């Protein structure tokens, strides 16, 4: 039995007659009929009731038709997957991500993926939140690694890690003596936060509002400036743990929050843009 015979069989069933199938397949009716008879002899089963003019299926024929369709569908998918893998040697995968490569084993996983696809033109762009979202939405990027706390309706998300919000306090701050603090205790403080457009700061302002207040004194700057400013006693900050993993925190205390504010780190892609096979493999690697 061959795939060609399975295809012949399916066409006969779907056209309803051997003659119609022969015309569609550009074969003689005699050749088509002999091919099916050979398959029936090989399988030792009768697939068609040949007592009438139409190609009526036997009970075994009905079952064989369903199975044949599944086999042909699986074969088509197999060929498609192989072609995508072959094409990936010449294709490009553009990944954008936040400056968090030192966290969640991102850097090592990207290295592992690059090694698995040495001929893939794998381009990585480290961007801030706003630029990352813009380039993903306009199709410049195929995938992005970002925080999914505020999902965009045009994007699909595939979460692979959780992050936790913490409070950064000057070492001499009265609250630094606690083992954990509540957001309500921070109400009178001067806040030093990441730029207002970032997901981290949006989340920080959101949880403060849920705690019953809006910070009155807020200054925005980059992470390294936040840490040095907190160390100098200029204010406090709310950041995610991954934001500070790569920094030295002299004279700064990392304080857990009683509210246990969590955030998701995820791959994002356009809903309307099908993922390539390399993009799917990259997501699968991170979800292991």
Fill in the keyword field for this structure.
single chain; 288 residues; alpha/beta; Arc Repressor Mutant, subunit A; D-Maltodextrin-Binding Protein, domain 2; 3 domains; two-stranded antiparallel ribbon; 11 strands; elongated; DNA-binding; DNA-binding transcription factor activity; transcription regulation; WH-like_DNA-bd_sf
Number of helical stretches of at least 4 residues: 10
Please estimate the helix content.
40-55%
Q: How many β-strands, per DSSP?
A: 11
Structural class: alpha/beta
Radius of gyration: 30 Å
InterPro entries: LysR_HTH_N (IPR000847), LysR_subst-bd (IPR005119), WH-like_DNA-bd_sf (IPR036388), WH_DNA-bd_sf (IPR036390)
Protein name: DNA-binding transcriptional LysR family regulator
Domain HTH lysR-type: 1-58
GO molecular function: DNA binding; DNA-binding transcription factor activity
Can you put this structure into words, describing what you see?
By secondary structure, the chain is α/β, with parallel strands linked by helices. Helix 2 (18-25) crosses helix 3. The chain has ten helices and eleven strands. The longest helix has 30 residues, at 59-88. The strands form three sheets. Strands 3, 4, 5, 6, 9, 10 and 11 form a seven-stranded mixed beta sheet that branches. Keywords: DNA-binding, Transcription, Transcription regulation. Belongs to the LysR transcriptional regulatory family.
